Amino acid sequence: MTATPHSNLYVRNLSPEVDQAVLQQLFQPYGQIESCRIVKNARTHASKGYGFVKYSSVESAHSAIQHLHGVLYGGGILEVKFADADAGRQQSGQVPGDNLYVRNIPSAWTDQDLLQLFLPHGSVQDCRLLQGGDASRGMGALVRMANIDEATAAIENLNDRIPVAGAALPLLVRFADTAEEKRAKRANSSAYAARSGILGSASPAAAGIAGAQLPAADRQGFAGVIAAQGHHHPATHLLAQGPSSVYIKNLPPEADKLFLYQRFAPHGAIQSVKVLTDEDSQQCKGVGFVNYVVPTGAMLAVQAMDGVRIGDKYLHVSLQTHSRMRGPLQ
């Protein structure tokens, strides 16, 4: 049985000029808005190109999707769909406790360095660095203080602080997820994976973009909307044919299949992924492939991910050619 969708929308492909006021003005005609926000880079405060709009009713959310999804606005084709979580609340680290989650720890640090960072704020019962993770956000860790008061003091004093001179990012320190929050995350992740085509065979409609797998008449209509506004967009060339795979360079050593799924699934239903690894270390050699169900997914992935910074490198993402093929995607 399919759950009734909530009234919160995820909006993607927003130009840097679109701020919160402009986003609200764009969505205001379709119903009463409860909350609206643009997601920004924590360090630069620049827009990440996506945001959330929550309406007071599901009907208003449906109306906004019907009128705005696939519309050319500010140089990009808007993607508007139901979000996995409400925009007005955080889903992690909201329940106070003595356990803390820490992010953006310098890659050269040890458990002892982490201990010395937290000792001035109370009695540290346990601390350990987490292996792997996203290189663009630094290392993660778990720290357990003696009580909630000490954990709260550590958050107040260390969150958003540069841990050492020359560190790339400020620390993120928050209460660790409770068992209930972890279950909610897993449920949201499973639901998103099912809708995005990560689990099992995905239907072409799961690509999630207007015109991706429509009948010929509708594809022509979609292209006509763009032409009528006096704009030319490459989406009009790849709605029905063209490469459906992308070639990726400059991946971090810890990149694996899940790494690719998490970053490339938002752009369309994925059929398969492949990461080239070193035979001895089993680490990624910096190269990967993502095969989409329809060509539109590949085109959108190139537009969104080419040039994205991961750690100290910038991804190179391009449409797959036969000359780059290293064997079948698995």
Describe this structure in words.
The chain folds into three domains: 1-87, Alpha-Beta Plaits (2-Layer Sandwich), CATH 3.30.70; 99-176, RRM (RNA recognition motif) domain (Alpha-Beta Plaits, 2-Layer Sandwich); 185-330, RRM (RNA recognition motif) domain (Alpha-Beta Plaits, 2-Layer Sandwich). The chain contains eight helices and 16 strands. A four-stranded antiparallel β-sheet has the order 2-3-1-6, with helices on one face. The chain is globular and about 55 Å long. The protein is α+β, with helices and mostly antiparallel strands. Strand 2 and strand 3 form a beta hairpin.
Quick recap:
With 330 residues, the protein is α+β, with helices and mostly antiparallel strands. The protein has helices spanning 20-27, 58-68, 111-118, 148-158, 179-196, 216-228, 257-264, 295-305, and strands spanning 8-12, 33-40, 47-55, 72-73, 76-77, 79-82, 99-105, 124-130, 139-145, 172-175, 245-249, 270-277, 284-292, 309-310, 313-314, 316-319. Helices cover 27% and strands 26% of the residues.
